Amino acid sequence: MMGEVFFSLMLCIFLCMACYFDYRFCRIPNWLVLLILGLGLVRAFWTGGPYQIWSYVLWGSMMLLALYPLFRIGTMGGGDLKLYAVCCGFFPREKILSFLFFSLLIAALFSLFRFVRRADLKERFVYLLAYVKSVADSGEWKLYFSDVQEKKKAGICLAGPILLSVLLYWGGFY
Questions:
Q1: What is the pTM of this model?
Q2: Phi and psi at residue 26, to the nearest 5°
Q3: Which of 56, 152, 166, 169 could serve as 44's disulfide partner, Cβ 3.0–4.6 Å?
Q4: What number of helices (H) and strands (E) belong to the chain?
């Protein structure tokens, strides 16, 4: 029990650091992702031995594969993708989809609030529809954001929603 509290606290500290880097510099350093990975591997071994390490690696890899298309089209950053992968191993297998769902829901709410506050919700929705139409017409996946300014204007940092989803889980919400 005490070990689990330690690992949970350390993950929260590392995720707070990830939030700092993500919101300040729009990137999550690889050394921080590796720290969380190391913490997750130690936790996995601590709680279940070598089998649990394989489970941690398997679920992290599955998260990478599931979210890779979002990274590939430019709607998710590489640091966010890696952060999801290393964090999902801290959850029981049956809670991983809930973790993903709630973090993405929180990100969507952040985005909605941001677009309403900036009064460009209609513009963002039109951009999304134009992107979907373009992909459907061409039959090829394209980058979602056509230029860097567009990405900065509409992009959302996911470290915060990931942290909030982790806290919701540990708070017993799901």
A1: 0.89
A2: 60, 35
A3: 56
A4: 7, 0
CA 93, 78, 62: angle at the middle one, nearest 5? 25
Q: What is the pLDDT of residues 108-149, one digit of tens each?
A: 999 999 988 989 889 888 988 999 999 999 998 888 887 666
Question: Whole-angstrom Cα distance, residue 87 to residue 116?
Answer: 30
Exposure string of 50-73, with b = 16+ CB inside 10 Å and e = fewer, is eebbeebbebbeebbebbeebbee
pLDDT, tens digit (0-9, with 9 covering 90-100), for 26-72: 999 999 999 999 999 999 999 999 999 999 999 999 999 999 999 99
| Domain extent listing, the chain | 2-170
Q: What whole-number distance in Å separates Cα of residue 174 and Cα of residue 160?
A: 18
- CA-CA distance, 114 to 66, in Å (whole number)? 27
